[in-house]
Amino acid sequence: MNENLIQSQIPHVLNETDFSFLGEKYEGKVRDSYVQGDKRFLITTDRLSCFDVVVACVPFKGQVLNELAIHWFEQAKDIMPNHIIACPDPNVMVVRNCEILPVEVIVRGYITGSAWRDYEAGKAVSGIELPKGLRANQQLPEPILTPSTKAERGEHDEPISESEILSRGIVAEDLWNTVREKAFALFALGQEKALEQGLILVDTKYEFGLIDGELILADEIHTLDSSRYWVAESYQERFEAGESPVMLDKEPTRQWLLSQGYKGEGEIPTFTEDHLVSLSKHYMDSFEQIAGKSFTPFGGDVRSRIENNLREYLG
Ligand SMILES: Nc1ncnc2c1ncn2[C@@H]1O[C@H](COP(=O)(O)OP(=O)(O)OP(=O)(O)O)[C@@H](O)[C@H]1O
Ligand SMILES: [Mg+2]
After folding, report:
1. Does this model's pTM top 0.85?
2. Is 37 left (phi over 0), alpha (psi -120 to 50) or beta?
């Protein structure tokens, strides 16, 4: 990928949107939604969030994430229906507006990240007692489900056990059984397809929704914001040597922020242009490796392009 092209896109990054003609706006950390009746326009911006804070905007990140989600929804459509109605622009999905179940359904095949920190501190992970003696980044005997509550804006999500989800009536038991079965099936598919590309799908988060009682896969799936990916080939050797795996996800950015003394509060360290260019390249390369197809960045005035495409879509 041409670094000059990325560089020249920095002033055009999609950091915010203002498309009131699309309906009522809801601003997430990464995506802006506009809701109009039973439709939701889900616009993936270039915002990069770490520790639940937007720390930078990375050229083409929005397009990469949106197209990666579309790729995986397509792969997963035999497992269950998803929310997509149309994809009228590289940064936009028009979806069926659902009632999202108030739990983030996280599946983990390896012990790392927050689950590792809990385990190391002797805590159960979302109520699951794991075998003793696991090491950081070790593969689990089988994938586990570690749900969290979906926090209100500005709050952090909290782990919750499956038994608590049921005892508090957050999701009804029959529905929950379907959710867990689908989550494991989606994760198995993701791991299998990732491995064909030389990658390990380490863990991921799903969001499910309901429309007229039908369970639908919503939000995003197996993207670099919702999942960890490691390079398979070097994993074992590095694990045995006590080294971190080679990662495609956001962890290196988190580590960089930590090295700058940033943990989600106070002044955000400045990303240099070179850093943004290398992150952008990383996102595009990762897309190609995960999806096994080439990525074509659409640069220039992204905002006007989205507006034109959506006006045309709405007719
Ligand atoms: N089909 C859908 N119907 C309704 N809401 C949806 C649908 N798909 C995704 N969403 C919601 O759209 C929002 C996407 O924005 P984004 O992921 O940037 O938010 P976020 O900051 O992660 O917030 P959250 O913690 O609520 O996910 C999420 O709140 C997600 O639950
Ligand atoms: Mg989200």
Report:
1. yes
2. left
